[in-house]
Every structure is written in structure tokens, then in C-alpha cells.
Amino acid sequence: MKEVDHLTNLRNDIKVITEEILNLVSQHKKIVEEVGRIKKIQGLPIEDIIVEENLKRFVQHKSSELGIDPILGVRLLNILLSNSIQVQKNAVSPRNFYSPADMLQRAKKISESGKKVIHLETGEPDFPPPSSVIKKIKESIDLGHFNYTDSTGIESLKNAVAEHLNEKLRTDLKNQQVLITHGARFGLYLAIASNIQPGDEVLLFEPAYPAYRRLIELFGGRVISIQTTLEEKWVPDFDMIENRFKDIPRFMIINYPANPTGKVLSKRDYNRMLEFVVSNKIKVLSDEVYIDYNFSENNSILQHQNCDSIFVSSFSKSYSMTGFRIGYMVSDKEAIGRMGEMEGIALTCIPEYVQQAAIKALESHTTLKDNVDRIRKRVEYATELTQKLHLKYYKPEGGLYIFPSTNKEKFRCDEYAISLLNNYYVSVTPGLAFGNYPRHIRISLCQPQKMLEEAFRRMETSFK
Ligand SMILES: Cc1ncc(COP(=O)(O)O)c(C=O)c1O
Questions:
Q1: Alpha-carbon distances of 456 from 115, 401, 412, rounded to whole Å
Q2: I need a labelling partner for 95 at 20 to 30 A (CA). Which of 152, 178, 338, 426 fits?
Q3: Cα(317)–Cα(126) distance, rounded to whole angstroms?
Q4: H/E stretch holding 58
């Protein structure tokens, strides 16, 4: 047979096999729908980590047997699993998902109608940015500092960030390890975009900041959710993790002090987690936007050089600069180079005058101390108020929130949050925004004590 005919035949074979794969995917979808129907009738959860893990072991084994890279096998499985979950979610009655931003928009609409809403839904500090920051931004504009900059950030700011962290954490970071970003959120985007391929698994401790799940799914990754509970003081079950997740996944996200729980892992737990990730060569994305609001033991991923990590933080919370949209990342030089290039492609750079003003923020030690003291007092105060409401809570060791729950019969956080907003003009975020936590609400402490007191008074009435 001529080579040309042979090639044509092979291409036809590939077409036939592709059609067979599609037929199998279609059969798979029908089975998944049926499984979803049964789960719905029996009230079973959509995701079953044990069933999925067993299937994964089987796929790894079978892939090796067939001479396929097990990582590819698992990626394909995860694409199917993600699709199955979506199909089943559509079959189960849709649950209301109100993120902090959704709640804020609803609350704003109510405010527009003339009602005075107390905003406890978002993590936007109510105090002003340092005055030196405002002054510098005006000066920079007057001096005409509004040009394109290097996409990784201006040298003086990268130096200032490295020095600031070295001083705070006793590290030895170089400015080539720093990338200036459009807030911590874009840092998270870059970290996930540059590390996650469709079908890749990402370990995530929930409850968690909603953007993590959304970003992982945006890039086709699969969330392996480790549920933590208030009863267990929000400490992940490391025995289970060590047993179950040895070989895959390769990526994990952590966030301490945590949003929404205010959890800070003890040194012992943190070290145990690090041992697990280092010995299994898992890359860690550590979101430390609340690094300064830590009233407990100070643990930063940057203090552990043996861990392959990406650190993300921001000016938003520490210096009350949410709308300035400026944050920073730290990783090894190569990773920073790659992510800097991506940032350049997407955004060109962060505005020059904002970068210059951010240097002033890092010099505002007194403002930072005042901000942290203020939040620390509010945590104490809100804890007392939560206790008086007979809600279950874990006293935050950091962060800007408290995340209590209730045993009240038939309580659903989404219905409660909407009713609290519509009837009592207090806006909180339902626990469901952070994972499967229908009995929790997140209360942001970004309001003065007087407002917190009034909000809790209204909540007390709402619970009667
Ligand atoms: C855990 C966490 N990470 C990141 C962000 C985003 O911060 P930024 O304003 O710097 O984008 C937030 C904001 O609420 C957050 O809570």
C-alpha cells in the first residue's frame, strides 16, 4: 500500500475511534443523569470523595497497564467527573449562591431606596488609607508619573516589598522574586492560570474564599475539597489527607489567617501540613492577604524555603486600599518571570502613580498598627456579641470576619441573609458562598463597634 493511502486509512481509524469515544461519553452522561436522579431522591451529596478516589486508583492502575501516562489518565477522568458534577448539580434543585459581592449589590439597591443598611458582607475596611498614600498619588500625577512601567512592577516598589517582608518574616527575598499585581485577586489568577491544566486537581480547605473554586474551575481544574468544621476548630483532618492524597494532586491552596473563619493554624499543625506537601512535592499557593491581621502565631509560607510555593498578598486589607487594586506575589525567579509575562500580556502594568503611592503605604507603620489594633478589638467585641446571640462560633485568631453557625431548626443561611437584609437592613454573607456551610453566616468586622452593636441588636430581633 502506498504511504499516502496508509496515512488516509490511519486518519479514518482515528475518526472512527474518536466517534467511539464520543458515543461512550454520551452513554456516560446518561448514566450520570440517572445517578443524579437517584441521589436527589435519596438526598445524597453530589460529590463523594471516597467513590471518586477509588475510581482514580483504578484509572491510575489501568493507565499504567495500557502504557498511558497515569497523570493523563487522571486528567481525563477529572474532566469527566467535573462534567458529571455539573450535570448532577443542574438536576438537583438549584441552591442560592450569594457571594459577598452579590450581597453588596443587593444591599446597595436597598440603600438607594433610602434605607440605612449596615454592611457586614464585604471585607472592605471602613478606615481611610494612610494620608501619605493619598498625598503621594496626587504628587505623582502632578509630576506626570503616569506612564507604562515594567510589567513586573517598578524597581523601587519591588525592593520595598522585599525589604518589608524580609523585615517582618526574617527572610532573604530578592526583588526578582517579587511581582506587583492588580490586587491579590489577580495574583491568584496568575498562579492558577500558570499552574493548572484541565483535569488537574487542587486541594482546597473549605470553607474558603469563593474566588479559589471559581478560578480553579475556570481553568478546567478539579477542586478536591477538604471540609473543615467549627467543631474541629477548622483544623483539616491531616490523617485523612496523608492517607488519601499521597501521589496526586500537585497543587494546594491555603489561606491563613483565613477568610471566612479567622483561623490561624498552630505552628504544630502548620508544620505537619508542610511536611505533607514537601514530601509529596505539592506546590502551595498561600494567600496571605490577612498577614497583618494575625493575633496568633505568625506562620508564612515564605519562612519555609524547602516548600515550592507562591505567596500572594495585597495592600487592600492592611492599608485599606481595596480600590487602588494593588497587590504582590513572591515565588522563585522563573515562576515570577512567567507570571510577570502573563500579567504584561493581560494588563501591561499597574498604574505608575498607584505603585509609587504603595511604597508610602509600606512606610506607614503607625497606621498599620492602628488598623490592626482596631480590628483586634472588634474581634473581641464581636465574639462577645455572638456569644450573647447563642450562636456557635470559633473565636477568630486573625482576619476580618467571624463565621458563626446556628442549630435553629430549618435554618438556611441564604434565606436568612436575604430576610435579614430585606427586613432588618443588615447585610451579611451566607455560609454557602464559602462551601457547603448552610448553617453559617459570615459577619465582616469592617464597621465601627457602634454599628456592629446595632447590627447584632437587629440580628437578635430577627432570631426571635
Ligand atoms: C482571602 C482573600 N484573598 C484575596 C482577596 C482579594 O484581595 P484584593 O483586594 O487584594 O484583590 C480577598 C478579598 O476579600 C480575600 O478575602
A1: 17, 14, 18
A2: 426
A3: 10
A4: helix 49-66
